[in-house]
Amino acid sequence: MRGRAFKSWMVIGCAIALAPARTSAEEGFDTEHIFGFMIGTDVGNAGEREFQTQTTGRFGKGGGAYRALEHEVEIEVVPLPNFRVEVGGTASLHDITGVPEIDDRRQFNFQGASLDLRYRLLDRNRAPFGLTVAAELHGDRIDETSGAKGRMYGTEFTLALDRELIPSFAIGAVNLIYQPEWARFEVGGVSEKSSTIGAAFAGLVRVRPNVLLGGELRYFRQYEGIGLGEFSGQALFVGPTAYFQLSERSRLTLSWSMQAWGRPVGSSANLDLVNFERHQARMVFGINF
């Protein structure tokens, strides 16, 4: 299943990359949506509105079969200069069999809702680099990892920086991430608190007027408690990203990431498949209206 999905994404990417270039492509970069698992510092122009769908797949745990898909529908608006608001709703699909410490489950559910706020502090065109702060708040009724029912709340705080490395050709970005999470599960009334910190790096180059190709490298450390309490594990993800400007108003981003190294606490394993997945993939489609 993972192999067929990956081949399908490659076919889509190659077809778009070989399509005739559009003359309306911008010379510079708009980094708002070009990355897969990361964010850029651009937030759009005041008055802009966008519709976006984001599908994220996570595959592979420490045993058995693990597949989790999330499909999020989002509306983005820019009410003020340098300030963007996004609201979204997410549905999830879980197919889990024989994974240690996770109940077998095959289900499709409405997962929850989110609110994403971003404010650009520095414009890359007027400063040495772009700088944006973001906070994504979410409330869920389904745990994104196990699929168990309950009440889950969390926030992802991100500090994003980006800079054109070669004008109109190459762009680089850095994200610093902090994610506190709280959950209370329906079965047994068990409560859990956790937090994750991370650093991510990305680089993209323009290979055609409307096509960017590159990669992302992300490192995470997970802890018990929302205040970075007891250390639980760490993981390093690496993989390619492709961005396609389909038309003046529509776009597509494809990204895949593999855990290249990791280690859960108290283990000598070379991967952390307790706190993280083996593979992650993301497809984002958006359109201005």
Task: Report the end-to-end length measured between terminal Cα atoms.
Answer: 35 Å
Structural class: mainly beta
Strand content: over 45%
Q: How many alpha or pi helices? A: 1
Which descriptor suits the 3D outline?
globular
Sheet with the most strands: spatial strand order: 1-2-3-4-5-6-7-8-9-10-11-12
Mean pLDDT: 92
CATH superfamily: monomeric porin ompg
CATH class: Mainly Beta
CATH architecture: Beta Barrel
Name the helicity range: under 10%
CA gyration radius, whole angstroms: 19 Å
What is the number of beta strands?
A: 12
The count of domains is 1
Q: Strand count, sense and closure of the main sheet?
A: 12 strands, antiparallel, barrel
User: What is the H-and-E element order?
Assistant: HEEEEEEEEEEEE
CATH topology: Porin
- The low-confidence parts are 5-26
What does this structure look like?
The chain is mostly beta strands. It has one domain: Beta Barrel (Porin), CATH 2.40.160. Helix content is 6%, strand content 62%. The chain has one helix and twelve strands, in the order αββββββββββββ. It has one helix at 2-17, and strands spanning 49-59, 65-80, 83-97, 105-122, 130-142, 149-166, 170-185, 191-208, 211-224, 231-245, 250-264, 279-288. The chain has a twelve-stranded antiparallel beta barrel with strand order 1-2-3-4-5-6-7-8-9-10-11-12. The longest helix is centred in the first third of the chain and has 16 residues, at 2-17. The two termini are 35 Å apart.
Short description:
The chain is mainly beta and 289 residues long. It has 1 helix and 12 strands, in the order H-E-E-E-E-E-E-E-E-E-E-E-E.
